[in-house]
Amino acid sequence: MISGATLLAGVVGNPIAHSMSPILHNAWLAAAGIDGVYAPFRVTEERFASFVDGLRGGSVRGLNVTIPFKERALSLADRAGDRATMAGAANVLVFEADGTIVADNTDGLGLLAAFAEQAPGFDPKAGPVAILGAGGGARGAAAAFTAAGCREVRIVNRTQARAQAITDLLGGEAFGLHRAAAAFEDAIAVVNATSAGLAGEGQLDVPLEATPAACVVMDMVYKPLVTPFLARARALERRTVDGLAMLVGQAIPSFEAFYGQPPPADVDVRALALKRLEAR
Ligand code: NDP
Predict the structure, then answer these.
(1) What is the pTM of this model?
(2) Per residue in 71-99, pLDDT tens?
(3) Is residue 196 within 6 Å of ligand 1 at its C-beta?
Protein backbone atom coordinates (compact mmCIF):
# COMPACT_ATOMS: atom_id res chain seq x y z
CA MET A 1 0.00 0.00 0.00
CA ILE A 2 1.20 3.49 -0.82
CA SER A 3 0.70 5.73 2.22
CA GLY A 4 1.03 9.44 2.88
CA ALA A 5 4.52 8.77 4.24
CA THR A 6 5.81 6.62 1.36
CA LEU A 7 9.43 7.35 0.45
CA LEU A 8 9.93 7.88 -3.27
CA ALA A 9 13.00 7.05 -5.34
CA GLY A 10 13.58 5.94 -8.89
CA VAL A 11 15.71 5.72 -11.98
CA VAL A 12 15.88 8.38 -14.69
CA GLY A 13 17.02 7.79 -18.25
CA ASN A 14 15.99 7.65 -21.88
CA PRO A 15 15.22 4.94 -22.90
CA ILE A 16 14.17 3.52 -19.52
CA ALA A 17 11.68 0.71 -20.20
CA HIS A 18 14.55 -1.84 -20.36
CA SER A 19 15.71 -1.01 -16.81
CA MET A 20 15.62 -3.78 -14.21
CA SER A 21 16.40 -1.36 -11.36
CA PRO A 22 12.72 -1.02 -10.30
CA ILE A 23 12.46 -4.84 -9.97
CA LEU A 24 15.50 -4.95 -7.68
CA HIS A 25 14.70 -1.96 -5.48
CA ASN A 26 10.99 -2.73 -5.02
CA ALA A 27 11.76 -6.34 -4.06
CA TRP A 28 14.26 -5.12 -1.46
CA LEU A 29 11.85 -2.45 -0.15
CA ALA A 30 9.12 -5.05 0.34
CA ALA A 31 11.46 -7.52 2.07
CA ALA A 32 12.88 -4.81 4.35
CA GLY A 33 9.38 -3.61 5.27
CA ILE A 34 10.21 -0.06 4.15
CA ASP A 35 7.25 2.13 3.14
CA GLY A 36 8.79 3.09 -0.20
CA VAL A 37 8.31 2.98 -3.96
CA TYR A 38 10.98 3.02 -6.70
CA ALA A 39 9.73 4.17 -10.10
CA PRO A 40 11.13 4.65 -13.63
CA PHE A 41 11.26 8.18 -15.09
CA ARG A 42 11.74 8.73 -18.82
CA VAL A 43 12.87 12.30 -19.39
CA THR A 44 13.92 14.07 -22.58
CA GLU A 45 17.37 15.67 -22.94
CA GLU A 46 15.96 19.20 -22.88
CA ARG A 47 13.91 18.59 -19.71
CA PHE A 48 16.49 16.67 -17.69
CA ALA A 49 17.95 19.68 -15.84
CA SER A 50 14.55 21.12 -14.89
CA PHE A 51 13.32 17.65 -13.85
CA VAL A 52 16.27 17.23 -11.44
CA ASP A 53 16.04 20.79 -10.18
CA GLY A 54 12.35 20.32 -9.40
CA LEU A 55 13.14 17.48 -6.99
CA ARG A 56 15.26 19.66 -4.70
CA GLY A 57 14.07 19.51 -1.10
CA GLY A 58 13.57 15.76 -0.97
CA SER A 59 10.05 15.10 -2.28
CA VAL A 60 11.89 12.30 -4.05
CA ARG A 61 14.65 10.88 -1.83
CA GLY A 62 17.01 9.85 -4.58
CA LEU A 63 17.54 8.84 -8.18
CA ASN A 64 19.66 6.41 -10.04
CA VAL A 65 20.75 7.92 -13.32
CA THR A 66 21.22 5.96 -16.50
CA ILE A 67 21.78 6.49 -20.22
CA PRO A 68 22.45 9.23 -21.40
CA PHE A 69 22.45 11.50 -18.34
CA LYS A 70 25.27 10.42 -16.00
CA GLU A 71 27.69 13.19 -16.94
CA ARG A 72 25.04 15.90 -16.75
CA ALA A 73 23.80 14.51 -13.43
CA LEU A 74 27.19 15.20 -11.89
CA SER A 75 27.22 18.76 -13.21
CA LEU A 76 23.79 19.44 -11.64
CA ALA A 77 24.83 18.31 -8.13
CA ASP A 78 25.95 20.70 -5.41
CA ARG A 79 28.33 18.16 -3.86
CA ALA A 80 29.91 14.98 -5.14
CA GLY A 81 31.76 12.07 -3.57
CA ASP A 82 35.27 11.16 -4.72
CA ARG A 83 34.07 8.30 -6.93
CA ALA A 84 31.76 10.55 -8.95
CA THR A 85 34.34 13.33 -9.18
CA MET A 86 37.02 10.90 -10.36
CA ALA A 87 34.70 9.39 -12.96
CA GLY A 88 33.25 12.71 -14.12
CA ALA A 89 29.83 11.04 -13.98
CA ALA A 90 27.16 10.16 -11.41
CA ASN A 91 24.65 7.30 -11.30
CA VAL A 92 23.25 8.33 -7.89
CA LEU A 93 21.68 11.64 -6.87
CA VAL A 94 20.43 12.12 -3.31
CA PHE A 95 18.04 15.00 -2.60
CA GLU A 96 18.65 16.43 0.86
CA ALA A 97 15.89 18.20 2.83
CA ASP A 98 17.87 21.47 2.74
CA GLY A 99 17.58 21.56 -1.05
CA THR A 100 21.07 20.33 -1.93
CA ILE A 101 21.79 17.53 -4.38
CA VAL A 102 24.59 15.08 -3.58
CA ALA A 103 26.11 12.92 -6.35
CA ASP A 104 27.83 9.55 -6.09
CA ASN A 105 29.02 6.91 -8.50
CA THR A 106 28.37 3.28 -7.53
CA ASP A 107 28.81 1.86 -11.06
CA GLY A 108 32.48 1.16 -10.43
CA LEU A 109 31.68 -0.75 -7.23
CA GLY A 110 29.15 -2.78 -9.21
CA LEU A 111 31.64 -3.50 -11.96
CA LEU A 112 34.35 -4.74 -9.59
CA ALA A 113 31.80 -6.80 -7.62
CA ALA A 114 30.67 -8.42 -10.89
CA PHE A 115 34.26 -9.34 -11.82
CA ALA A 116 34.90 -10.73 -8.32
CA GLU A 117 31.75 -12.87 -8.54
CA GLN A 118 31.96 -14.15 -12.12
CA ALA A 119 35.71 -14.02 -12.89
CA PRO A 120 37.26 -15.12 -9.58
CA GLY A 121 40.98 -14.41 -9.37
CA PHE A 122 40.79 -11.48 -11.82
CA ASP A 123 43.39 -8.93 -10.73
CA PRO A 124 42.96 -5.37 -12.10
CA LYS A 125 46.63 -4.71 -11.34
CA ALA A 126 47.81 -7.47 -13.69
CA GLY A 127 47.71 -5.53 -16.98
CA PRO A 128 45.86 -3.13 -19.28
CA VAL A 129 42.08 -3.09 -19.62
CA ALA A 130 40.12 -1.87 -22.65
CA ILE A 131 36.75 -0.15 -22.28
CA LEU A 132 34.48 0.28 -25.30
CA GLY A 133 32.47 3.50 -25.06
CA ALA A 134 33.11 6.86 -23.47
CA GLY A 135 29.79 7.77 -21.84
CA GLY A 136 28.83 7.74 -18.18
CA GLY A 137 29.10 3.95 -17.79
CA ALA A 138 32.59 3.90 -19.33
CA ARG A 139 33.67 6.72 -17.02
CA GLY A 140 32.56 4.81 -13.90
CA ALA A 141 34.39 1.71 -15.11
CA ALA A 142 37.58 3.61 -15.98
CA ALA A 143 37.66 5.33 -12.59
CA ALA A 144 37.08 2.03 -10.75
CA PHE A 145 39.83 0.16 -12.62
CA THR A 146 42.21 3.10 -12.08
CA ALA A 147 41.39 3.26 -8.35
CA ALA A 148 41.92 -0.52 -8.15
CA GLY A 149 45.48 -0.10 -9.44
CA CYS A 150 45.06 -0.98 -13.13
CA ARG A 151 48.26 -0.15 -15.01
CA GLU A 152 46.64 1.27 -18.14
CA VAL A 153 43.02 1.95 -19.01
CA ARG A 154 42.39 2.10 -22.76
CA ILE A 155 39.24 3.88 -23.89
CA VAL A 156 37.98 2.82 -27.32
CA ASN A 157 35.16 4.94 -28.71
CA ARG A 158 33.37 5.83 -31.93
CA THR A 159 33.94 9.51 -31.15
CA GLN A 160 37.61 9.57 -30.22
CA ALA A 161 37.45 13.05 -28.65
CA ARG A 162 35.14 11.68 -25.93
CA ALA A 163 37.63 8.87 -25.22
CA GLN A 164 40.38 11.48 -25.03
CA ALA A 165 38.37 13.49 -22.47
CA ILE A 166 38.44 10.45 -20.14
CA THR A 167 42.15 9.74 -20.59
CA ASP A 168 42.88 13.46 -20.02
CA LEU A 169 41.19 13.03 -16.62
CA LEU A 170 42.47 9.59 -15.61
CA GLY A 171 45.50 8.82 -17.79
CA GLY A 172 45.65 5.83 -20.14
CA GLU A 173 45.21 5.90 -23.90
CA ALA A 174 42.35 6.85 -26.23
CA PHE A 175 41.56 4.82 -29.36
CA GLY A 176 39.09 5.17 -32.21
CA LEU A 177 36.86 2.12 -32.80
CA HIS A 178 38.88 1.28 -35.93
CA ARG A 179 41.92 0.65 -33.67
CA ALA A 180 40.09 -1.70 -31.28
CA ALA A 181 42.40 -4.64 -32.17
CA ALA A 182 45.43 -2.67 -30.99
CA ALA A 183 43.66 -1.84 -27.72
CA PHE A 184 42.69 -5.50 -27.17
CA GLU A 185 46.22 -6.85 -27.60
CA ASP A 186 47.58 -7.93 -24.17
CA ALA A 187 44.40 -6.66 -22.43
CA ILE A 188 43.40 -8.58 -19.29
CA ALA A 189 39.79 -7.38 -19.67
CA VAL A 190 37.54 -5.87 -22.34
CA VAL A 191 34.34 -4.16 -21.18
CA ASN A 192 31.53 -3.10 -23.50
CA ALA A 193 30.12 0.17 -22.14
CA THR A 194 28.50 1.32 -25.37
CA SER A 195 24.78 1.48 -25.89
CA ALA A 196 25.10 0.04 -29.42
CA GLY A 197 22.06 -2.10 -30.15
CA LEU A 198 20.07 -0.73 -27.21
CA ALA A 199 17.88 1.64 -29.19
CA GLY A 200 17.79 -0.57 -32.28
CA GLU A 201 21.04 0.99 -33.56
CA GLY A 202 23.77 -1.17 -35.09
CA GLN A 203 25.44 -3.92 -33.06
CA LEU A 204 29.02 -3.44 -32.00
CA ASP A 205 31.42 -5.18 -34.35
CA VAL A 206 34.89 -5.39 -32.79
CA PRO A 207 37.64 -8.03 -33.23
CA LEU A 208 37.40 -9.90 -29.92
CA GLU A 209 39.67 -12.55 -31.43
CA ALA A 210 42.53 -10.04 -30.94
CA THR A 211 42.24 -10.48 -27.14
CA PRO A 212 44.58 -12.90 -25.34
CA ALA A 213 43.03 -16.26 -24.34
CA ALA A 214 43.04 -15.26 -20.64
CA CYS A 215 41.21 -11.97 -21.26
CA VAL A 216 37.91 -11.55 -19.37
CA VAL A 217 35.11 -10.06 -21.49
CA MET A 218 32.28 -8.12 -19.89
CA ASP A 219 29.15 -6.48 -21.31
CA MET A 220 27.35 -3.79 -19.26
CA VAL A 221 24.24 -4.46 -21.32
CA TYR A 222 22.13 -7.22 -19.68
CA LYS A 223 19.23 -7.58 -22.08
CA PRO A 224 19.52 -10.32 -23.19
CA LEU A 225 21.69 -11.69 -20.38
CA VAL A 226 24.04 -13.28 -22.91
CA THR A 227 24.36 -10.49 -25.45
CA PRO A 228 25.72 -11.17 -28.95
CA PHE A 229 28.98 -9.58 -27.67
CA LEU A 230 29.23 -12.08 -24.76
CA ALA A 231 28.18 -14.96 -27.03
CA ARG A 232 31.10 -14.16 -29.36
CA ALA A 233 33.47 -14.03 -26.38
CA ARG A 234 32.21 -17.41 -25.15
CA ALA A 235 32.63 -18.90 -28.63
CA LEU A 236 36.29 -17.79 -28.36
CA GLU A 237 36.42 -19.51 -24.94
CA ARG A 238 37.02 -16.27 -23.05
CA ARG A 239 35.71 -15.96 -19.47
CA THR A 240 32.72 -13.61 -19.38
CA VAL A 241 30.98 -11.32 -16.88
CA ASP A 242 27.39 -10.16 -17.45
CA GLY A 243 25.80 -6.76 -16.95
CA LEU A 244 23.18 -8.03 -14.52
CA ALA A 245 25.87 -8.78 -11.93
CA MET A 246 27.06 -5.17 -12.28
CA LEU A 247 23.50 -3.86 -12.03
CA VAL A 248 22.98 -5.69 -8.73
CA GLY A 249 26.43 -4.60 -7.53
CA GLN A 250 25.72 -0.89 -8.13
CA ALA A 251 22.15 -1.12 -6.78
CA ILE A 252 23.23 -2.32 -3.30
CA PRO A 253 25.13 0.89 -2.38
CA SER A 254 22.45 2.96 -4.19
CA PHE A 255 19.75 1.46 -1.92
CA GLU A 256 21.91 2.27 1.09
CA ALA A 257 22.27 5.90 -0.08
CA PHE A 258 18.49 6.28 -0.44
CA TYR A 259 17.24 4.46 2.66
CA GLY A 260 20.19 4.54 5.09
CA GLN A 261 20.43 0.76 5.39
CA PRO A 262 21.76 -2.07 3.21
CA PRO A 263 19.19 -4.11 1.29
CA PRO A 264 18.17 -7.44 2.86
CA ALA A 265 20.69 -10.09 1.84
CA ASP A 266 18.14 -12.91 1.59
CA VAL A 267 16.32 -11.67 -1.55
CA ASP A 268 17.55 -13.31 -4.76
CA VAL A 269 17.16 -10.20 -6.93
CA ARG A 270 19.22 -11.74 -9.72
CA ALA A 271 16.71 -14.58 -10.04
CA LEU A 272 13.83 -12.07 -10.03
CA ALA A 273 15.45 -9.99 -12.77
CA LEU A 274 16.26 -13.08 -14.83
CA LYS A 275 12.65 -14.23 -14.63
CA ARG A 276 11.52 -10.84 -15.89
CA LEU A 277 14.13 -10.80 -18.67
CA GLU A 278 13.02 -14.24 -19.85
CA ALA A 279 9.36 -13.20 -19.84
CA ARG A 280 10.04 -10.30 -22.26
P1 NDP B 1 25.98 7.03 -22.77
O2 NDP B 1 24.85 7.46 -23.63
O3 NDP B 1 26.55 7.99 -21.80
O4 NDP B 1 27.18 6.52 -23.72
C5 NDP B 1 26.92 5.67 -24.80
C6 NDP B 1 28.23 5.25 -25.48
O7 NDP B 1 27.90 4.29 -26.48
C8 NDP B 1 28.96 6.39 -26.18
O9 NDP B 1 30.34 6.22 -25.96
C10 NDP B 1 28.59 6.18 -27.65
O11 NDP B 1 29.60 6.60 -28.55
C12 NDP B 1 28.50 4.66 -27.72
N13 NDP B 1 27.64 4.20 -28.82
C14 NDP B 1 26.31 4.35 -28.94
N15 NDP B 1 25.86 3.76 -30.08
C16 NDP B 1 26.95 3.22 -30.69
C17 NDP B 1 27.14 2.48 -31.90
N18 NDP B 1 26.10 2.18 -32.70
N19 NDP B 1 28.40 2.08 -32.21
C20 NDP B 1 29.44 2.38 -31.38
N21 NDP B 1 29.33 3.08 -30.23
C22 NDP B 1 28.10 3.50 -29.89
O23 NDP B 1 25.48 5.71 -22.04
P24 NDP B 1 26.00 5.06 -20.66
O25 NDP B 1 27.48 5.14 -20.63
O26 NDP B 1 25.23 5.59 -19.52
O27 NDP B 1 25.54 3.52 -20.84
C28 NDP B 1 26.14 2.71 -21.85
C29 NDP B 1 25.56 1.31 -21.78
O30 NDP B 1 25.97 0.65 -20.59
C31 NDP B 1 24.03 1.30 -21.77
O32 NDP B 1 23.61 0.20 -22.55
C33 NDP B 1 23.68 1.12 -20.31
O34 NDP B 1 22.41 0.51 -20.13
C35 NDP B 1 24.82 0.21 -19.87
N36 NDP B 1 25.11 0.33 -18.43
C37 NDP B 1 24.83 -0.74 -17.62
C38 NDP B 1 25.15 -0.70 -16.30
C39 NDP B 1 24.90 -1.90 -15.45
O40 NDP B 1 24.84 -1.76 -14.22
N41 NDP B 1 24.77 -3.09 -16.02
C42 NDP B 1 25.72 0.51 -15.66
C43 NDP B 1 26.02 1.55 -16.61
C44 NDP B 1 25.70 1.47 -17.94
P45 NDP B 1 29.78 8.14 -29.00
O46 NDP B 1 30.51 8.81 -27.87
O47 NDP B 1 30.55 8.06 -30.25
O48 NDP B 1 28.38 8.69 -29.17
Answers:
(1) 0.96
(2) 999 999 999 999 999 999 999 999 999 99
(3) yes
